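Researcher: First entry.
Model:
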Amino acid sequence: MGNDQEKSTILVVDDTPENIDVMNGILKPEYKVKVALNGEKALKIAGSDKPPDMILLDIMMPGMDGYEVCRRLKGAEETSHIPIIFVSGAEDSESREAGLALGAVDYLTKPIDPAQMKEKIETHLG
């Protein structure tokens, strides 16, 4: 189990445990997964001395929504480089465009399509 060093770390930010379980199940075999149930925790993890390589960020959360989390991450020098993929139940183009305008690299809709999710992650992790 010494290959954890080579695995990329993905931070999953979602206020719904069921969504976290689904994404965790898809990601665990190939990535290290960190979890935040709200925006404040996400900012703390992203700004830590071991920031994630990518963030999967829910938009609709109580308190600080995903747009605000993205705004803050992109506005801070130490976290501005982390690719963010928004994850949302909303399929409208306005939500997608708003997220991309804030600096997100991509957008996934719920329910999650595992193959599509892995493909987008691989694309943006390089």
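Researcher: Second entry.
Model:
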Amino acid sequence: MDREESMAESPPTTIFSSAVEQLEPEQAFIYLEMAAEVREKGIDVISFGIGQTDFLPPAPVLEAIKKAVDEGRVGYTPATGIPELREAISEFVNEKYGTDVEPEEVAVTAGAKSALFMCITLLTKPGDEVVVPDPGFPAYECIVRYAGGRPAFATLREEEGFKMTPELVAECLGERARGVILNYPHNPTGSTLGRRDLDEVLELARERNLWIVADEIYDHFVYEDRHYSLLENEDWRDHVVYINGFSKTWAMTGLRLGFVVARKEIVEKLKVYALNVYSCPPSVVQYGALAALEMGMEWFDGIRREYKRRRDLACEELNKIPGVRVLKSPGTFYLFPRVKELMRHVGVGSADELAKRILREIGVVMLPGTAFPLRGGEGYLRMSYALPMERIREGLARLREWVETRT
């Protein structure tokens, strides 16, 4: 049966756009649903799954949102955000990175994920090749395919600390190379990049006339060094689209507010895009974000120290488990333990099968490396250590006991 015959026999509301068929569900949320099912059976579930911090937004942020509600600031705002927030964002990144961003070069968005979607589809033409990390945040390659582009997967190597090095990027640049998606600190491995790496990637962009979408949403979760941004380069406007947001650092995941820093022409296009998709970012949340930026970052120092302690504990406990080895990743709140030997010992054929057994049998959630999103994550699990120390210790003790009874 050919496609036309199939369409003729199908209800029209079940015939979907070929572009939309390129989008896939994020497995972190699938495992969230599976965990809820296990919890309903009376099992105490310890979730190292979804990437969400375990603290609340700072009190001034919540107070500013409540005040905005009380004052009735619930109507439409400009599509790219209220002017005072755009100005505050420009001042924030300028102070942090010594750069020269103007308010007109900032677009506030309904979450960093919508910023990624709009920017990647805006810059990718049909047939373009876009370098994406593997493992990597799964939305990247889906969005490239949605736009008609072709993902060129840069397979990150454990022996290189899972870094998306300039050499690796260069290996992936074909004749139709158009762009690079750079995520650092990196989800799911926790790797990051130094100044020299970034300078060399940017030099590749200059030589090949490439754009770089820089997803720096985990920029404050860096433990041994500081975060270096591509915005620190004088010619960032010619090659870089910077994406960040308020979900991770300020724990505003469900409040959905991100932002883009890019040349004015891109911001103008994002304005049109936003008007057609969601009209404007959430109004009252923008006042909370404004309060967040006015606080400064001293309050976050204690959180960073706590997350570093959690990382160190998780690494220590994981490396005690037979068949498991993990690098002490320098950023994010994720670890990417290698479980290939463990898989052989317990007789499972994939990381996905292993993750499901661990969840169903002992109530511990870890995501399979293949959820991010292709072959580079096979034989690995992703662990989010955004939990209290005692829950990290308990969850990994369960896992160790489960493994030791089977090896």
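Model: Note on the second entry: The mean pLDDT is 95.
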